[in-house]
Amino acid sequence: MKTISSGLALASLVGTSLAGAIYTLDECVRGEGFYDSFNFENITDPTHGRVTYVNRTTAECLNLTYATSDTFILRADDTTVLKVNDSGRNSVRIRSNQWYYEHVVVFDIQHMPEGCGTWPAIWETKESDWPASGEIDILEGANNVVPNQSTLHTSHNCSMPNNTLQSGSFITTNCDASVAYNAGCGVQLTEDKNSFGPNFNKNGGGWYAMERTLHYIRVWFWERDDPFVPYEIRSGAWIVNTDTWGIPAANFPNSTECDIQSHFGANNIIINLTFCGDWAGNAANYNASGCPLDCVTYVNDNPSAFTNAYFQISSMNIYK
Ligand SMILES: *[C@@H]1O[C@H](CO)[C@@H](O)[C@H](O)[C@H]1NC(C)=O
Ligand SMILES: *[C@@H]1O[C@H](CO)[C@@H](O)[C@H](O)[C@H]1NC(C)=O
Ligand SMILES: *[C@@H]1O[C@H](CO)[C@@H](O)[C@H](O)[C@H]1NC(C)=O
Ligand SMILES: *[C@@H]1O[C@H](CO)[C@@H](O)[C@H](O)[C@H]1NC(C)=O
Ligand SMILES: *[C@@H]1O[C@H](CO)[C@@H](O)[C@H](O)[C@H]1NC(C)=O
Ligand SMILES: *[C@@H]1O[C@H](CO)[C@@H](O)[C@H](O)[C@H]1NC(C)=O
Ligand SMILES: *[C@@H]1O[C@H](CO)[C@@H](O)[C@H](O)[C@H]1NC(C)=O
Ligand SMILES: *[C@@H]1O[C@H](CO)[C@@H](O)[C@H](O)[C@H]1NC(C)=O
Ligand SMILES: *[C@@H]1O[C@H](CO)[C@@H](O)[C@H](O)[C@H]1NC(C)=O
Ligand SMILES: *[C@@H]1O[C@H](CO)[C@@H](O)[C@H](O)[C@H]1NC(C)=O
């Protein structure tokens, strides 16, 4: 890991009047650095997936994680036919060692898991007091298709107005995790066809960025060859100015309907890949996606269907 101390000299140059929009690089996690910055969570999937989250030793031994200086791969087993009573397909779930409050995070992603039954996610939360410290799902979806979205899940008394400046569209506006079976307030990334699944991968991926302040939480996506990707994103610059990033894909404002400060606390970053479970394996969702059989049978019997069930991430930059 290269933890780069945020340049005080640079910060003072830009002054304080633009504070909130200008950030300096605080942590640059690249390739092998993911091993230092994240812990392997060897736990039972709380969302009841058809998965076994292995520990680091096993992951490296089975090549379920693999890193070079500029790439980190996280994937599921794609060779084992599972018996009904096996515990689930081997996969990996990692959680950051650091805690984050107000920050910007930029992921440079080449590939995300695809395939029927897959449910990949990059998100932030504090697991031990969920949902008191909030949950921000930056990138999440299931079964390749529906719904590619960014979602907040919170404690009571947080909902979003459906008139925010964003390119995506709210499919639900109540963020309260106790409402509507924890649907959360979700924005579907409707504008860009290459932000998820097979299309994302064919296109060489792209960049997901999230900015969390006391005034709003915003998510942006730029596909790999987007001519409008800010140069500071493409180059992994020392300083970024989120005011120049254009209209976000998802925009969750602070308001009288949701006091962001009291609904979001210290969060970890989590990257996980599960199968089936509460979302992907829900029979109605699974069938609607056009996937064959039932989810668990499909995942048990077809290891080769998961050859492309992997994340390939170059870097994760944190700005503060
Ligand atoms: C932990 O990982 C090992 C393999 O590394 C696996 O056999 C075991 O089932 C996992 N434990 C849990 C709770 O998933
Ligand atoms: C990882 O899991 C394997 C298989 O269950 C076990 O043999 C090994 O001791 C575990 N390693 C750690 C560090 O927990
Ligand atoms: C592990 O995976 C990487 C990336 O897919 C691959 O290049 C490498 O050859 C694999 N190593 C083994 C021992 O299979
Ligand atoms: C699976 O486990 C159940 C309960 O322990 C047992 O009754 C059943 O025979 C097992 N099935 C197979 C195929 O091993
Ligand atoms: C990861 O786990 C969390 C809860 O533990 C869940 O909310 C999230 O949806 C899961 N996603 C995946 C892809 O496993
Ligand atoms: C929000 O507004 C958009 C555009 O008018 C509409 O398509 C969508 O259904 C609305 N969402 C909710 C949750 O009301
Ligand atoms: C996201 O899902 C919606 C609804 O299924 C779909 O119309 C849209 O094309 C999807 N976008 C991407 C990037 O896959
Ligand atoms: C809900 O939040 C608002 C501030 O956003 C606060 O004024 C109000 O008292 C809260 N209501 C409850 C029931 O907690
Ligand atoms: C968030 O909105 C509430 C309600 O308007 C307000 O009381 C609070 O001061 C706002 N928070 C910030 C940090 O501006
Ligand atoms: C989904 O499809 C499976 C297998 O084709 C079928 O058994 C099940 O009833 C369907 N469930 C729903 C909710 O449509």
Biggest sheet architecture: 9 strands, antiparallel
CATH topology label:
Jelly Rolls
Run of helices and strands: HEHEEHEEEEEEEEEEHEEHEEHEHHHE
Structural class: alpha+beta
The overall strand count is 19
Helix content: 10-25%
Number of domains: 1
Radius of gyration: 19 Å
> Could you list the spans in which at least 5 consecutive residues all have pLDDT below 50?
1-19
CATH class: Mainly Beta
Ligand names: 2-acetamido-2-deoxy-beta-D-glucopyranose
User: Looking at the structure, what is the overall shape?
Assistant: globular
CATH arch. level architecture: Sandwich
Domain GH16: 16-288
Signal peptide: 1-19
GO molecular function: hydrolase activity, hydrolyzing O-glycosyl compounds
InterPro entries: Beta-glucanase-like (IPR000757), ConA-like_dom_sf (IPR013320), Glycosyl_Hydrlase_16 (IPR050546)
